[in-house]
Amino acid sequence: MFVRLRRVIPALSKAERRIAETTIADPRIVVDSTITRLADVCSTSPATVARFCRSAGFGGYTEFRLAVASAASRAAAVRDRFRIDDAEIGPDDSAADVVTKVAFQESKAIEETARHLDLRALDAVVGALRGASRIQVYGAGASALAAEDMQQKLMRIGLPVWSSVDPHVALVGVAQSAPDDVVIAISHSGRTREASELLAVARERGATTVAITSVPDSPVGEQADHVLATSAHGSRFRPGAMSSRSAQLAVVDFVMVRLLQGTYDAASDRLQLTRDAVAAHRLSNGRHAARSNGSPT
Fold first, then answer.
1. Which residues form the HTH rpiR-type domain (predicted)?
2. pTM for this one?
Protein backbone atom coordinates (compact mmCIF):
# COMPACT_ATOMS: atom_id res chain seq x y z
CA MET A 1 0.00 0.00 0.00
CA PHE A 2 2.57 2.58 1.11
CA VAL A 3 4.96 1.23 -1.52
CA ARG A 4 2.36 2.01 -4.17
CA LEU A 5 1.93 5.56 -2.86
CA ARG A 6 5.67 6.25 -2.88
CA ARG A 7 5.91 5.07 -6.46
CA VAL A 8 3.10 7.29 -7.76
CA ILE A 9 4.21 10.45 -5.91
CA PRO A 10 6.40 11.77 -8.77
CA ALA A 11 3.41 11.71 -11.15
CA LEU A 12 1.00 13.48 -8.79
CA SER A 13 -0.02 17.12 -8.67
CA LYS A 14 1.18 19.21 -5.71
CA ALA A 15 -2.14 18.85 -3.90
CA GLU A 16 -2.30 15.10 -4.49
CA ARG A 17 1.31 14.78 -3.37
CA ARG A 18 0.41 16.42 -0.05
CA ILE A 19 -2.28 13.79 0.46
CA ALA A 20 0.13 10.95 -0.31
CA GLU A 21 2.85 12.33 1.95
CA THR A 22 0.37 12.91 4.79
CA THR A 23 -0.90 9.33 4.45
CA ILE A 24 2.60 7.87 4.54
CA ALA A 25 3.69 10.05 7.46
CA ASP A 26 0.62 9.35 9.61
CA PRO A 27 -1.82 6.71 8.31
CA ARG A 28 -4.06 7.20 11.36
CA ILE A 29 -5.15 10.56 9.94
CA VAL A 30 -6.74 8.74 6.99
CA VAL A 31 -8.14 5.91 9.10
CA ASP A 32 -9.81 8.38 11.51
CA SER A 33 -10.96 10.97 8.95
CA THR A 34 -13.80 11.47 6.55
CA ILE A 35 -12.90 12.60 3.05
CA THR A 36 -13.80 16.18 4.05
CA ARG A 37 -11.61 16.08 7.14
CA LEU A 38 -8.63 14.70 5.20
CA ALA A 39 -9.10 17.42 2.59
CA ASP A 40 -8.95 20.07 5.33
CA VAL A 41 -5.80 18.54 6.85
CA CYS A 42 -4.10 18.54 3.43
CA SER A 43 -5.34 22.04 2.51
CA THR A 44 -7.25 20.82 -0.52
CA SER A 45 -10.77 19.84 -1.58
CA PRO A 46 -12.73 16.57 -1.25
CA ALA A 47 -12.81 16.39 -5.05
CA THR A 48 -9.00 16.41 -5.11
CA VAL A 49 -8.89 13.64 -2.49
CA ALA A 50 -11.26 11.57 -4.62
CA ARG A 51 -9.13 12.20 -7.70
CA PHE A 52 -6.01 11.23 -5.76
CA CYS A 53 -7.61 7.92 -4.72
CA ARG A 54 -8.28 7.09 -8.37
CA SER A 55 -4.74 8.14 -9.33
CA ALA A 56 -3.41 5.73 -6.70
CA GLY A 57 -5.46 2.89 -8.18
CA PHE A 58 -8.45 2.82 -5.84
CA GLY A 59 -12.13 2.97 -6.71
CA GLY A 60 -12.83 5.70 -4.18
CA TYR A 61 -12.10 7.06 -0.72
CA THR A 62 -13.77 4.21 1.15
CA GLU A 63 -11.61 1.61 -0.59
CA PHE A 64 -8.52 3.75 -0.06
CA ARG A 65 -9.28 4.26 3.63
CA LEU A 66 -9.74 0.49 4.21
CA ALA A 67 -6.46 -0.26 2.42
CA VAL A 68 -4.62 2.29 4.58
CA ALA A 69 -6.09 0.78 7.75
CA SER A 70 -5.00 -2.71 6.71
CA ALA A 71 -1.50 -1.60 5.75
CA ALA A 72 -1.09 0.37 8.99
CA SER A 73 -2.09 -2.70 10.98
CA ARG A 74 0.50 -4.86 9.20
CA ALA A 75 3.19 -2.23 9.72
CA ALA A 76 2.37 -2.07 13.43
CA ALA A 77 2.67 -5.86 13.69
CA VAL A 78 6.14 -5.77 12.10
CA ARG A 79 7.26 -2.99 14.45
CA ASP A 80 5.99 -5.08 17.35
CA ARG A 81 8.13 -7.99 16.16
CA PHE A 82 11.18 -5.74 16.40
CA ARG A 83 9.88 -4.30 19.69
CA ILE A 84 9.89 -0.70 18.54
CA ASP A 85 7.10 1.88 18.71
CA ASP A 86 8.50 4.26 16.11
CA ALA A 87 10.64 3.14 13.16
CA GLU A 88 12.16 6.58 12.58
CA ILE A 89 15.58 7.20 14.09
CA GLY A 90 15.82 10.21 16.39
CA PRO A 91 18.85 12.25 17.44
CA ASP A 92 18.53 11.04 21.04
CA ASP A 93 18.10 7.32 20.29
CA SER A 94 20.46 4.96 22.09
CA ALA A 95 22.88 2.67 20.27
CA ALA A 96 20.48 -0.22 20.89
CA ASP A 97 17.58 1.78 19.42
CA VAL A 98 19.61 2.69 16.33
CA VAL A 99 20.70 -0.89 15.71
CA THR A 100 17.16 -2.20 16.11
CA LYS A 101 15.59 0.47 13.91
CA VAL A 102 18.17 0.09 11.14
CA ALA A 103 17.61 -3.68 11.24
CA PHE A 104 13.87 -3.07 10.99
CA GLN A 105 14.25 -0.69 8.05
CA GLU A 106 16.60 -3.07 6.20
CA SER A 107 14.25 -6.01 6.75
CA LYS A 108 11.24 -3.95 5.69
CA ALA A 109 12.92 -2.78 2.47
CA ILE A 110 13.77 -6.34 1.41
CA GLU A 111 10.37 -7.72 2.44
CA GLU A 112 8.43 -5.04 0.55
CA THR A 113 10.66 -5.39 -2.49
CA ALA A 114 10.04 -9.13 -2.57
CA ARG A 115 6.28 -8.73 -2.06
CA HIS A 116 5.83 -6.25 -4.90
CA LEU A 117 8.42 -7.53 -7.38
CA ASP A 118 7.11 -8.24 -10.89
CA LEU A 119 7.93 -11.94 -11.18
CA ARG A 120 7.25 -12.07 -14.90
CA ALA A 121 9.73 -9.25 -15.40
CA LEU A 122 12.23 -11.14 -13.22
CA ASP A 123 12.00 -14.26 -15.36
CA ALA A 124 12.14 -12.20 -18.57
CA VAL A 125 15.39 -10.60 -17.36
CA VAL A 126 16.83 -13.99 -16.39
CA GLY A 127 15.93 -15.40 -19.82
CA ALA A 128 17.61 -12.47 -21.56
CA LEU A 129 20.75 -12.84 -19.45
CA ARG A 130 21.05 -16.55 -20.23
CA GLY A 131 21.11 -15.88 -23.95
CA ALA A 132 23.10 -12.63 -23.90
CA SER A 133 26.25 -12.21 -25.95
CA ARG A 134 27.27 -9.33 -23.71
CA ILE A 135 25.93 -7.81 -20.51
CA GLN A 136 26.67 -4.31 -19.27
CA VAL A 137 25.68 -3.11 -15.79
CA TYR A 138 25.79 0.53 -14.72
CA GLY A 139 25.13 2.36 -11.49
CA ALA A 140 26.26 5.78 -10.28
CA GLY A 141 27.08 6.75 -6.70
CA ALA A 142 25.72 4.28 -4.16
CA SER A 143 24.02 2.30 -6.93
CA ALA A 144 27.49 1.53 -8.30
CA LEU A 145 27.93 -0.83 -5.35
CA ALA A 146 24.97 -2.93 -6.52
CA ALA A 147 26.25 -2.79 -10.12
CA GLU A 148 29.65 -4.05 -9.01
CA ASP A 149 28.03 -6.81 -6.96
CA MET A 150 25.98 -7.92 -9.97
CA GLN A 151 29.02 -7.88 -12.24
CA GLN A 152 31.04 -9.99 -9.81
CA LYS A 153 28.28 -12.56 -9.40
CA LEU A 154 27.49 -12.87 -13.11
CA MET A 155 31.21 -13.16 -13.88
CA ARG A 156 31.58 -16.03 -11.40
CA ILE A 157 29.09 -18.16 -13.35
CA GLY A 158 30.78 -17.44 -16.64
CA LEU A 159 28.52 -14.79 -18.16
CA PRO A 160 30.12 -12.10 -20.35
CA VAL A 161 29.56 -9.05 -18.17
CA TRP A 162 31.17 -5.62 -17.87
CA SER A 163 30.61 -2.71 -15.53
CA SER A 164 32.21 0.72 -15.29
CA VAL A 165 31.51 3.59 -12.93
CA ASP A 166 32.84 5.99 -15.59
CA PRO A 167 29.76 7.00 -17.62
CA HIS A 168 31.87 7.80 -20.70
CA VAL A 169 33.44 4.33 -20.68
CA ALA A 170 30.01 2.81 -20.10
CA LEU A 171 28.57 4.78 -23.04
CA VAL A 172 31.38 3.58 -25.31
CA GLY A 173 30.47 0.00 -24.43
CA VAL A 174 26.72 0.51 -24.79
CA ALA A 175 27.17 2.26 -28.15
CA GLN A 176 28.44 -1.05 -29.50
CA SER A 177 25.45 -3.03 -28.23
CA ALA A 178 23.68 -5.57 -30.43
CA PRO A 179 20.15 -7.03 -30.25
CA ASP A 180 21.32 -10.05 -28.24
CA ASP A 181 22.99 -7.88 -25.57
CA VAL A 182 21.52 -6.84 -22.21
CA VAL A 183 22.11 -3.46 -20.58
CA ILE A 184 21.13 -3.00 -16.92
CA ALA A 185 20.93 0.39 -15.19
CA ILE A 186 20.56 0.69 -11.42
CA SER A 187 19.18 3.96 -10.00
CA HIS A 188 17.29 4.36 -6.75
CA SER A 189 15.61 7.61 -7.78
CA GLY A 190 15.19 6.67 -11.43
CA ARG A 191 16.40 10.16 -12.31
CA THR A 192 20.11 9.55 -12.81
CA ARG A 193 20.86 11.23 -16.13
CA GLU A 194 23.70 8.87 -17.10
CA ALA A 195 21.64 5.76 -16.37
CA SER A 196 18.74 7.03 -18.48
CA GLU A 197 21.08 7.99 -21.31
CA LEU A 198 22.75 4.57 -21.30
CA LEU A 199 19.42 2.76 -21.59
CA ALA A 200 18.28 5.11 -24.36
CA VAL A 201 21.41 4.37 -26.39
CA ALA A 202 21.04 0.64 -25.73
CA ARG A 203 17.42 0.70 -26.95
CA GLU A 204 18.49 2.43 -30.14
CA ARG A 205 20.96 -0.38 -30.70
CA GLY A 206 18.24 -3.00 -30.16
CA ALA A 207 19.61 -4.39 -26.87
CA THR A 208 17.35 -5.58 -24.07
CA THR A 209 17.20 -2.87 -21.41
CA VAL A 210 16.60 -3.42 -17.71
CA ALA A 211 16.09 -0.91 -14.88
CA ILE A 212 16.45 -1.62 -11.18
CA THR A 213 14.80 1.37 -9.50
CA SER A 214 12.37 2.31 -6.77
CA VAL A 215 10.42 4.54 -9.18
CA PRO A 216 9.23 2.56 -12.25
CA ASP A 217 7.51 5.62 -13.77
CA SER A 218 10.76 7.56 -13.95
CA PRO A 219 13.12 8.58 -16.77
CA VAL A 220 15.24 5.47 -16.15
CA GLY A 221 12.22 3.19 -15.84
CA GLU A 222 10.67 4.54 -19.03
CA GLN A 223 13.77 3.57 -21.03
CA ALA A 224 13.65 -0.04 -19.84
CA ASP A 225 12.05 -3.05 -21.46
CA HIS A 226 11.85 -4.65 -18.02
CA VAL A 227 11.70 -2.95 -14.62
CA LEU A 228 12.67 -4.67 -11.37
CA ALA A 229 11.29 -2.31 -8.76
CA THR A 230 12.80 -1.93 -5.33
CA SER A 231 11.07 -0.61 -2.24
CA ALA A 232 13.10 1.71 -0.06
CA HIS A 233 12.76 5.25 1.17
CA GLY A 234 15.12 7.58 2.95
CA SER A 235 14.79 9.29 6.30
CA ARG A 236 16.60 12.01 8.23
CA PHE A 237 19.54 9.83 9.27
CA ARG A 238 19.35 7.30 6.41
CA PRO A 239 19.15 9.00 3.00
CA GLY A 240 17.79 7.16 -0.01
CA ALA A 241 21.22 6.09 -1.23
CA MET A 242 21.72 4.28 2.07
CA SER A 243 18.29 2.70 2.45
CA SER A 244 18.13 1.54 -1.17
CA ARG A 245 21.29 -0.55 -1.07
CA SER A 246 19.81 -3.62 0.66
CA ALA A 247 16.80 -3.70 -1.66
CA GLN A 248 19.02 -3.42 -4.75
CA LEU A 249 21.33 -6.19 -3.54
CA ALA A 250 18.28 -8.36 -2.81
CA VAL A 251 17.10 -7.94 -6.42
CA VAL A 252 20.56 -8.91 -7.66
CA ASP A 253 20.32 -12.07 -5.55
CA PHE A 254 16.83 -12.85 -6.87
CA VAL A 255 18.23 -12.70 -10.40
CA MET A 256 21.26 -14.81 -9.52
CA VAL A 257 19.32 -17.60 -7.84
CA ARG A 258 16.90 -17.85 -10.78
CA LEU A 259 19.89 -18.03 -13.13
CA LEU A 260 21.49 -20.78 -11.07
CA GLN A 261 18.27 -22.81 -11.01
CA GLY A 262 18.35 -23.24 -14.76
CA THR A 263 22.07 -23.92 -15.18
CA TYR A 264 23.11 -25.33 -11.83
CA ASP A 265 25.56 -28.04 -12.98
CA ALA A 266 27.50 -25.79 -15.36
CA ALA A 267 27.34 -22.82 -12.99
CA SER A 268 28.46 -24.98 -10.07
CA ASP A 269 31.56 -26.03 -11.99
CA ARG A 270 32.39 -22.40 -12.78
CA LEU A 271 31.84 -21.33 -9.18
CA GLN A 272 34.27 -24.02 -8.07
CA LEU A 273 36.84 -22.79 -10.60
CA THR A 274 36.58 -19.26 -9.18
CA ARG A 275 36.89 -20.56 -5.61
CA ASP A 276 39.99 -22.54 -6.56
CA ALA A 277 41.49 -19.53 -8.34
CA VAL A 278 41.49 -17.40 -5.18
CA ALA A 279 41.99 -20.13 -2.58
CA ALA A 280 45.74 -19.55 -2.38
CA HIS A 281 45.12 -15.89 -1.53
CA ARG A 282 43.24 -16.63 1.68
CA LEU A 283 45.25 -16.33 4.89
CA SER A 284 45.16 -19.09 7.44
CA ASN A 285 44.11 -18.29 10.99
CA GLY A 286 47.58 -17.23 12.14
CA ARG A 287 46.57 -16.47 15.71
CA HIS A 288 45.01 -19.91 16.14
CA ALA A 289 48.04 -21.59 14.52
CA ALA A 290 50.43 -19.67 16.77
CA ARG A 291 48.58 -20.72 19.90
CA SER A 292 48.51 -24.33 18.74
CA ASN A 293 52.30 -24.27 18.31
CA GLY A 294 52.87 -22.66 21.68
CA SER A 295 54.24 -19.54 19.99
CA PRO A 296 53.59 -16.05 21.37
CA THR A 297 50.66 -14.23 19.74
1. 1-75
2. 0.74
